[in-house]
Design a protein that fits this description.
Residues 20-214 form the Phospholipase/carboxylesterase/thioesterase domain. This is Phospholipase/carboxylesterase. GO terms for molecular function: hydrolase activity. Keywords: Hydrolase. Belongs to the AB hydrolase superfamily. AB hydrolase 2 family. By secondary structure, the protein is of the alpha/beta class. The chain has one domain (3-218): Rossmann fold. It is built from 6 helices and 11 strands. The strands form 3 sheets. Strands 1-3-2-8-9-10-11 form a 7-stranded mixed β-sheet, with helices on both faces. A two-stranded antiparallel ribbon has the order 4-5. The protein has a two-stranded antiparallel sheet with strand order 6-7. The relative contact order is 0.14.
Length: 220
């Protein structure tokens, strides 16, 4: 995003008008940016934080798109087919939200790790790949490639992604996840994968992989 685009996006986002919760963590702990799936909200996804890092701060916004009354992060044409222009626009907005929240809550220097499930994983991935200055660490539970048949990604060196998926997930097909890993790596991102039996969701092995991912990052 250019400086002009960044400024415009930040002007379009008002922190007070965007439903979210913030809970400060212990001193020196990372802040988890928790991003819910379709139909969820900022409070239910925030409950994952203690399973990943004890004492972590929590920044948990609500998706601003409504689909038949269900909260989402971006529009889709139908199941599994995303409105890619809207994905990109909403990623701009989320990057702006993060910048404003960091300033408002005084967490400019905190390590921020995005943790998203399903639709929340997809917006986390899109934002990290388009705006690594906003998010450079993502734990994506049951996510997939968010850009359809396009590749709008620039330099993603320095970005680290954990892709945790069920091998038989019809909502996040294995081919899409493999394409995501390939494209992200081509643009310089470091990609780790955790593949388990089963479908859409988060299980104990996913959480364990996430804890290991976070611990490895803190050692760098």
């Amino acid at each position: 995003m250019s400086a002009a685009e960044s400024g415009a996006a930040r002007q379009a986002v008002e922190l007070d008008a965007w439903p979210h919760i913030f809970q400060p963590g212990r001193e020196g702990a990372p802040v988890l940016l928790t991003l819910h799936g379709t139909g969820g909200d900022e409070r239910d996804i925030a409950q994952i934080a203690p399973h990943l890092i004890e004492g972590a701060g929590i920044l948990s916004p609500r998706g601003r798109v409504s689909e038949h009354g269900m909260n989402r992060w971006f529009r889709r044409v139908r199941e599994g087919v995303f409105d890619v222009d809207d994905v990109i626009a909403r990623a701009h907005e989320l990057a702006a939200f993060i910048a404003l929240a960091r300033e408002h809550y005084g967490i400019q220097d905190a390590r921020l790790i995005a943790v998203g499930f399903s639709n929340g994983a997809n917006i986390a991935l899109a934002t990290a790949l388009l705006h690594p200055e906003a998010i450079d660490r993502v734990i994506a539970f049951s996510g997939m490639y968010p850009f359809g048949d396009r590749d709008p990604v620039g330099d993603a060196s320095g970005v680290r992604l954990l892709l945790a998926n069920g091998a038989a997930d019809p909502m996040a097909p294995a081919a899409s996840v493999a394409h995501l890993a390939e494209v992200a790596a081509e643009h310089g991102a470091e990609v780790e994968r955790h593949i388990r039996a089963g479908g859409h969701g988060i299980d104990a092995s996913d959480l364990a992989a996430a804890v290991t991912f976070i611990g490895a990052g803190s050692a760098r």
